[in-house]
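User: Please look over both lines:
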Amino acid sequence: MTDQYTFDNPVTRYSKDIPSQQHQSEPGLETELTPTPDLGESTYRGTGRLTGRRALITGGDSGIGAAVAIAFAREGADVAVSYLPEEEPDARRIVALIEEAGRTAVALPADLTTAEACRAVVADAVDKLGGLDIIVNNAGKQIYVEKLEDLTDEQFDQTLKTNVYAMFWLTKAALPHLGAGSSIINTTSIQAYAPSAILVDYATTKASINTFTKALSQQLAERGIRVNAVAPGPIWTALQVSDGQPQDALDEFGQMTPLGRAGQPAELAPAYVFLASAESSYVVGETLNVNGGMPTP
């Protein structure tokens, strides 16, 4: 069986064919996508790089967050997964996969757009895991809008709260529980560098996440807490079909990259494992781009 260590042609590792016209209501369910995203369920092979660690992952029910949860568990970490209550079917599947890896799984349904909810999620994760060593701020909201005049105050506010405020609230609540050797990993995006015209609010948040990461990394480095980020390119997840992209653009999604295809969540997980592990002990304030070759600063 192939795994993340198998060498092959990255251009043809996954198909570039994505059927259009498969709209879902936000936030979308991964099990209803065609093709189903690869989370590494059948391929990720752990080597004990996170043995004994305790991680909280937001947006951990599907997509990138789910792939990271699976990888962390197979690397030896206990994992708390935060997700919207509507995503319960996807979350149950990821919890089962964490438990199959022999690790503790904690399911934390919550809407992270309030400070109170974020504090409660951290408190529950700490209580049920017995502490916290890693936090992955990955939950995100992306809804395309073609004209700024049509971008409502409510959507702008919700996107900022989900992508930026929640990261602030969660990280602030987690800090008292993080000791030297802990790791904070934020999910930014290629949109921080090459924003799409139809994603003004989303791109704004991703640029903010980059700057937040770099500023906080300077503050926490002396405590031995490393803060870094991963910047995905076009990745095939439920986010795309729940109004993250126009329906008529789905069949060409990701084909503008030098590799000519969208990425899969499984291709992101090793980057998060690296940043969470002791292997990256001298990596601070870094944004690791996993985008199929799209140039970034």
About this structure: The first strand starts at residue 54 and ends at 58. The beta strands are 54-58, 78-83, 105-109, 134-137, 183-187, 226-232, 287-290. The mean pLDDT is 95.
